[in-house]
Design a protein that fits this description.
Length: 118
């Protein structure tokens, strides 16, 4: 915030100016999941953190465009949010997942996270 003050002989006036900067999204690898090996039937949580201005939105897709199985009653083509939680993972869930960060400022960025099932 930049603050400028104007004074006259009659009264004091304050004029405040705000600056905002646009920053493209950047995925923070240190706070995001890396490749995972999970036991069949276990739950898995993948996390993706991104910075930028405006704050980026995060969505998840499978690299092969197949559905993401969240639990036994919910499968989706895309999941929105920093965290992707999948219950009772099976070998069918094995593969590469994409974390995609966007905020309207190019470029949109992504990170691939591979999930292997034992």
């Amino acid at each position: 915030m930049m603050r400028r003050e104007k004074y006259t002989t009659d009264r004091a006036c304050t004029d405040e100016s705000f600056f905002s900067f646009s920053v493209p999204p950047n995925i923070d690898d240190s706070q995001s999941s890396s490749d995972a090996i999970v036991r069949e039937g276990a739950n898995v949580t993948l996390t993706c953190k991104a910075t930028g201005s405006p704050i980026p939105s995060i969505r998840w897709k499978r690299d092969d465009n197949s559905k993401i199985t969240i639990n036994k009653s919910l499968s989706v083509l895309e999941w929105v949010g920093e965290t992707l939680e999948m219950e009772r993972i099976s070998r069918l869930d094995m593969g590469a997942y994409l974390c995609i960060a966007s905020n309207g400022i190019p470029p949109t960025v992504s990170k691939q996270i591979k999930v292997s099932v034992d």
